[in-house]
DNA sequence: GTCTATATTCCGATAGAC
DNA sequence: GTCTATCGGAATATAGAC
């Protein structure tokens, strides 16, 4: 049940936003009362923390599985993750929570910071190693390039929601092509 | 008074998000009662529409003023607009409203669509003309490149909120450097 | 145009029974 | 662990006086 709640909360955050969903939106589809949800997650911030923590674990598990691949294929996989979210009508967790950042509890803000650091660190290392192995070609610091890549992926989901999924496809394709050539 | 309300609502949308601010957040700082705000904007969606409309007018007015400049300097100006928002603690309107898109009224969604189309159209034309005049150098279609630029700018503000303003500076600088060289 | 006052609904959260 | 029941508060919105 706890897992079902977190999974559903994750979806709701991505589709409606953290401040726009309620305990009722969790309880009704699971056919329980909102008190049952409060039993597992006393406050909404507790639920938010669990969603972010699970997302970070998913991310670490994924990159762990990709670690034997060439760096450009590792980045392909990351784009695949975003593509799946795009066609599921989701935005990414950062893209949903960052605009609400000022309304969140300090512990949630701290978790979001950690999530951002983790993905920036991984993309930076991926680009750096990939350039060394001649699989990526780009100018400037790998850390700066990583910020560009991450911002492209994040906003591709925001733009896709407004303009349609083609926006994601065009961004994702051009992004990968730029780095490889 | 109507202008004051729209200006304040714009700020609140950018800082807290559309679903996280209330009529009280508008009324209190203006030293009026929430009924006075409802007089000018009967529903919250009416207020949201006015905010988007004013932002679009500001944008059209700006690009009109820039039209005599070289294209790379026009893009500098656009980055300047985002930089000011960054240091004011704001995200851009699209970056705030896109995650909440599914919770908004159809008229608001339509206005957001128009806003997205307008900025994509302008950046595309700017890049296309700039490339023709040898002020920009990039591969691929100008429209695809425009989506990359816009996604960089949008998410630079989201990342800056979480990671600090340096994230914006690094993205903005590398972005402009890529296009010029 | 702004006020007081209120209707209505919903939300997050808790108490206590089972 | 889930339930019923409810508290306290806040939100959007409206009616009617001034």
From TrEMBL, chains A, B:
Residues in the DNA-binding region annotation: 22-41
Keyword Nucleus appears in the UniProt entry: no
Every HTH tetR-type domain range: 1-59
InterPro entries: Homeodomain-like_sf, HTH_TetR, Tet_transcr_reg_TetR-rel_C_sf
GO molecular function annotations of the record: DNA binding
Keywords, comma-separated and alphabetical: DNA-binding, Transcription, Transcription regulation
Signal peptide span: none
PROSITE patterns, per the entry: HTH_TETR_2 (PS50977)
Protein's UniProt keywords contain Zinc: no
Domain of life: Bacteria
Pfam assignment, any one: TetR_N
Gene3D superfamilies (UniProt xref): Tetracycline Repressor, domain 2
Matching PANTHER family: HTH-TYPE TRANSCRIPTIONAL REGULATOR YJDC, TRANSCRIPTIONAL REGULATORY PROTEIN
Name of this chain's protein: TetR/AcrR family transcriptional regulator
